[in-house]
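Objective 1b. Sequence-to-structure analysis of Protein translocase subunit SecA.
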Amino acid sequence: MLDELVHPWKLSDLKMMPFPERRAPTAGAIDSILARFQATLKRRSTATLARLGPFLERIERHATQLQDMDETDYALISDEVRRQFLHTGLTAENIARSFALVRETSYRLLGMRHHPVQLVAGYMLLQGRLAEMNTGEGKTLTALLPAATAALAGVPVHIVTVNDYLAKRDADHLKPVYDRLGVSVGLVEHGQDPATRRAAYACDVVYCTNKELAFDYLRDTIALRGKRSKARVLLDQTIGDIRDRPQLYLRGLHFAIVDEADSVLVDEARTPLIISRELEDPVGAETYRAALDVAKDLQAADHYRLSTRDKTIHLTPLGRKIVADASSPAGGLWAARRARLELVEQALSALHLFKRDVHYIVVDGKVQIVDEYTGRVMADRSWERGLHQLIETKEDCKPSGRRETLAQITYQRFFRRYLWLAGMTGTAAEIATELDEVYDLKFIRIPTHRPVRREDLGARLCVTTGEKWRHVARRVREVSESGRPVLIGTRSVEASEALSVVLGAQGLQHTVLNARQDAGEAAIVTAAGSAGSVTVATNMAGRGTDIKLSPDVVKRGGLHVILTEYHESGRIDRQLFGRCARQGDPGSFEAIVSLEDELFRRYESHILPFSTIRPFNAFLCHVMRRFGQYMMERNHLWIRRQSVKQDTKLDTALAFAGKTD
């Protein structure tokens, strides 16, 4: 196991690949079933220090030599490591030496030396594994090991995370280490001009978000249409013909380390990524208004069926008749019966399924989508099939033009194209089978460096939202007056601002962090760990947020986290709880939720008579949460599989037509 790493290509072959990426074979139905069954049976292993003891000993042997070197000799080591990789490849001995170099450099420049469990996790990432590391165990520093090692070996690396804030934070924090190693590091973030973006992708290690990366890949796909064959690109390179060569962003898909892999590869993989262009809208504002007016007059059950679980609305036969008979001076598409039916169904969705300050916010007369997983605004993103324009009309905004799809891809198909793929997360056990089945990522659990001191204070189930906010305010006062900081997690902008009003009315000083109030995010996160501070936040303060505590706060018991609404995935809840008790610090968490919360509303009629029986309160809350999240996760899994099927069909059709993506 320690003699040689298994990887899909030789380092020397990279120079022969003009746009390196993997073309995954298309599996049939039987192959997919067998792969799913095999992934379920595979043993999920836990990495132990004993198993990798010989590898760790090699690192320590090299580390001893490095610690005794002065700066002059130390500066020459990076070049020597590069030469060893070039001559003998990614052997365990060369990797151990590189890890020792990276660890010593990190210690000299940042004062941070990798723990043994981080060394183990780094080695597993180089093997293309999915490493589950508890929240607070230092995934940022861990990713430095395989990223710098691969870069020293001549392999371009993409470190993929869930938002621009984390990408910039990690790149800035680790840049001194990369610079000392002679490894260039780039940052790709939203709003960059093309030249800056291309320069970032030209670096050895690139920090970026999954969305920016995938959309840049699609832009390259569009640019390469008609010129994508390897022979054509190689011919251009050989004869130096640059007259018709497209200006690409990426150098290929070599090695990706996906941070928060469960969020990127699973939670956000339900819908395809689409690049489109705005067209002159043939519908017009008057038609959108007519569709909304008709939709407002329709009655649920009689005229349409609404599924909050699937987020779909369908007209009943009676509803279709009413819409078909509807007349309007709008003309245009409204005159076409089929188009009128589709527009009204979309109008019903805009009215009943998409809520302001939950699914979107309105800023300067524009509708901006809020990412349900990160809590952040997704600038320049829009819904399809007229839905975005109908929501704009609903909010009295000027409708934007409709859009034509130019290219699309799912995350499943995109990340499977990497020659080398690895991932990290604190919450992967439940979806390990799917990650193995879809991405061929083998799950391995990494032990913690120190014992976890996170205290679970249980859950309280309230009948109404108002009751929930009162209990939250009471707990905030109790905990903050003891000198401990409090972080309160909410699911939406609307909920965070509603709670802010309640806390303000009771004289409780606090800070709000959400998609509308995101200025100074870094400063808010820094202050969230100070004694007695109170922070109300959406998912923006979830994954990757590292709240530092002062020694005095640690003595008082550390950060206390209050969850105010369960998410559709329990993994997101655990990510919030993971903001406390990090790296051996103390901390505690609790849940204060309501029967009026979205996850519980489907079952309210069944459990409301029992909700006041206090001995069963916590038990009911646990059962309802587990059942609701299980049903939603199962539904999301079905959606993801359907998305992959549709994506595969589209790819097959385009290939038959002689096109790509």
